[in-house]
Amino acid sequence: MALRLYNTLSGKIEEFHPIDDNRVRMYACGPTVYDYGHIGNFRTFIAVDFLYRFLRQSGYDVRYVMNITDVDDKIIRNAARDAVSVQEYTAKFVQAFLEDSATLSIEKPLLVRATEHINAMADFIGELEKKGFAYRTEDGSYYFRIAKFPEYGKLSKKDFAGLTDGARVDVDEYEKDSARDFALWKAPKPGEASWKTSIGPGRPGWHIECSVMSMEELGSSFDLHAGGEDLIFPHHENEIAQSESMTGQQFARYWFHARFLLVEGQKMSKSLGNFFTIRDLVLRGHKPSSIRWLLTQVPYRNQLNFTFDGLKSAASSVEKLRNFRFRLTSSQFPSGATPAMAQLAEETIARMKSALDDDLNTAEAQAAMFDMLRKVNTALDAVEVRQDDVKPLLGALGKFDEIFAVLKDDDQPKMKAILDWARAEGREQEISPELLDIAGSAQLTDEEINQKIAEMEAARKARNFKASDALRAELTAGGILVENTKEGVRWRRK
Ligand code: AMP
Ligand code: ZN
Predict the structure, then answer these.
(1) Segment 421-464, tens digit of pLDDT
(2) Nearest CA to ligand 1 atom 14
(3) Dihedral, 285, 288, 291, 295 alpha carbons, nearest 10
(4) SS3 content of the chain, % helix, strand, coil (to 5)
(5) Hey, is 202 helix, strand or coil?
(6) Strand pairing of 181-186 and 261-263?
């Protein structure tokens, strides 16, 4: 069964078929690097990461490009306020974006930066002017003439008939009811960054950045364009207008938009005090894997309500999955096979695939895995799982984790890095005791822990309880919880 995705352009769920056989070319609008990314941004980036991972798992060869908007109104304003160059201002946030993405186990797309394509943008605008789609104003700015593009509004489903020809808007972001000629290029203003180009000095508008970079990397027509739902208008509508009037061809075929996230039932905003970056949550002691899990629990087109209770239950779901894998990899099993187990693994893989094929229904894919987990845990308790069952069961778990990416127990080093960052930034007062507690355990590597556990077991077998107790105490002090289970000694980090 083919993947079915909701396409904002058609307003329907459609079967996804790339233009070019097995090759998928996709583009996502990336961060505007004027601040640290918040959980809403990462809800969208993780949704696209899921799509990327799932397309590859489905056998496609995917070229996935994401831009970094490192010049726009907000950046220019903040850089001018801090009296630094645009590059200096954005460097820290570009780095933070890369680190936060890695913290959340987001696979790296091919990243392109707006400031590295300024000349191409200017040339593109020059061409649009020649074709009559753009005009220059007296100060040296350029605008797109939307009256020349009758299909304007086809993505956002707005009817712009009757708009006033020549009314202009020069800010990057604006409301739906103000459909006007939008700025492609902004003439230099005192104290603002500008570049010398074929169409004169100035800087690009935000919308032209994505048209130029996506087409440069992916061609005039490509398969899929993604972003958060707020980008449908004006950003994506404007991208379509610029690109299609330039080439006369369809720009992107499928438009993929992630629904905005709420926090504790409300719109996230700094004034409500419910605005969280990834780092804010880690400073409060939450694990990156719990954050990733929570951000994927609700399919990308449904409203996701981010709550702290939800974060706690996400942590427990991840823990269950990790314990499950541990049980399968560390226990002794009788030889042979229980055929129902391989069959269960196969069914689970099929259920996960059909869930994700259904417009990336992540919740349903998680439910499939948890059904398997419950059934196998029951079978393990009844000693019904045999040696040959382990491989197919781990196979299903592995397929699941190719997309969900939460099994690797690397939360502690990631949290330690954020702890160090907070100290370096003078944000000690935000470091919670929970974070200190967990990050402390990062000092011991997995190998060191396994080694100590083996020594502990050897001491216990030799009835040297003093030595084994001392080793256990050492591990506990390092934030490692040691448990004796039916299948032997098991450990986990706090
Ligand atoms: P920005 O850095 O503001 O350009 O946004 C980067 C990405 O995050 C865009 O795709 C936005 O649509 C998306 N985004 C911003 N806020 C939210 C939110 N609250 N929920 C989901 N996605 C968001
Ligand atoms: Zn964009």
Answers:
(1) 999 999 999 999 999 988 876 667 777 888 888 888 888 888 98
(2) 41
(3) 170
(4) 50, 15, 30
(5) strand
(6) unpaired
Q: What is the pTM of this model?
A: 0.91
Counting from 1 in the atom list of ligand 1, the atom nearest the Cα of 228 is: 12
For 326, the 3-state DSSP assignment is helix
Cβ 202 vs Cβ 185: under 8 Å = yes
Ligand 1 binding pocket includes 295 (Cβ within 6 Å): no
Q: Over the stretch 9-42, which tens digit does the pLDDT of each residue have?
A: 999 999 999 999 999 999 999 999 999 999 999 9
| Distance (Å, whole) CA 456 – CA 458 | 5
pLDDT tens profile 68-118: 999 998 999 999 999 999 999 999 999 999 999 999 999 999 999 999 999
Ligand number with the minimum distance to the CA of 67: 2
Ligand 1 in reach of 227 Cβ (< 6 A): yes
- Give the ligand whose atoms come closest to the C-alpha of residue 112: 2
User: From the CB of residue 21, how many other CB atoms can be counted at a distance below 10 Å?
Assistant: 9
Pairing of strands 142-144, 181-186: antiparallel
Q: Which atom of ligand 1 is nearest to the CA of 32?
A: 2
* CA of 44, closest atom in ligand 1: 22
DSSP-assigned letter for residue 13 = E
Concatenated DSSP letters for 117-146? Answer: SHHHHHHHHHHHHHTTSEEE-TTS-EEE-G
Tell whether ligand 1 has an atom less than 6 A from the beta carbon of residue 125. Answer: no
Ligand 1 site-directed mutation target among 44, 51, 291, most atoms within 8 Å of CB: 44
